[in-house]
Amino acid sequence: MSTRSLSVSLIVSLLCALSAPLASQAPPSSPLAPVAVPATGFAGLDRYRASRVAVYSDDYGERARYRVANAALPAPNPAENRVVFFGDSITDFWRLDQSFPGKPFVNRGIGGQTTSQMLVRFRQDVIELRPQVVVILAGTNDIAGNTGPIVNEEIEGNLASLADLARMHDIRVVLSSVMPVHNYTSRAQEFFASRPAERIVALNRWMREYAAANAVVYLDYYGTMVDDRGMLRRDLAEDGLHPNAAGYAIMARLADEAIQRALTQGRSR
User: Fold this and answer.
1) pLDDT at residue 37, as a whole number
2) Is residue 113 within 8 Å of residue 62, measured between CB atoms?
């Protein structure tokens, strides 16, 4: 064997000897540790957020929720004033067929969502359905921190983006106030505590001003449903947040009026 061949052989042997103990020290493969969700100070909200980790990581905007329904929905005919109700659980739980019988109103609410999630699905769940009007009701879950801390200015930016996207596609916008919350029942305590009244009032004030400056209809649920203590009327929700039949009856009347204003506003432009 030549000197060169011997040297190469010695180097290879040395490298193998050095790498063996390193390989034996490699930790065995193990499943990933559970993700720790930061605490919010509200036990119910912490449990909810922990239960949504897979949703937030796999389908943040929950676009799968209405994918099949959207594909099955025919295009609106030229005489149809299609309206999409777009929002969170308050919209999701709303039986539009009962509140607006015979009208081509489409529900695209998803419980628990924030405005950041709604931006992700706005194109497929609103724009591509080609409505005349979109009724946006959002913001209460942002204030509660469902998808993490967010200040009012960021919520306002998300709402403005939703409205801007709609108007760019000739969809008239009805921007709904965030509803008040009460704490008159045991079920209502955490919903109320996680949604400070002053933040709701401030966000609604911004919406009213934005609507006036941007050819958007402002739908004031808050002013009709609030009581003399600045909370949601006790008779309108059992858990302090989600309307009962009486609450939805008031909302239906106000929404219908706002939709008619939006349609009239659109024709006059």
Assistant:
1) 78
2) yes
DSSP bridge partners of 43: none
Cβ atoms of 262 and 173 closer than 8 Å: yes
Say which range, 23-32, 79-88, 240-249, 258-267, has the weakest mean pLDDT. 23-32
Query: Max CA-CA distance within the chain?
Result: 101
19-33 pLDDT, tens digit per residue, is: 444 444 445 555 555
- The mean predicted confidence, pLDDT, of the chain is 90
- 4 Cβ partners below 8 Å, 6+ apart? none
Cα pseudo-dihedral 68, 124, 77, 72, rounded to 10 = -10
Question: What are the pLDDT digits (tens) for 42-92?
Answer: 999 999 999 999 999 999 999 999 999 999 999 999 899 999 999 999 999
Ordered structural domains, the chain, with CATH: 43-268 (3.40.50.1110)
Distance CA 61, CA 56 (A): 8
Cβ 238 vs Cβ 182: under 8 Å: no
User: Beta partners for 133?
Assistant: 83, 172
Instruction: Give the whole-angstrom CA distance, residue 136 versus residue 108.
Output: 10
Q: Where do runs of H (alpha helix) occur along the chain?
A: 3-24, 43-51, 53-58, 67-72, 89-92, 96-99, 115-125, 140-144, 152-168, 189-193, 197-213, 221-225, 245-268
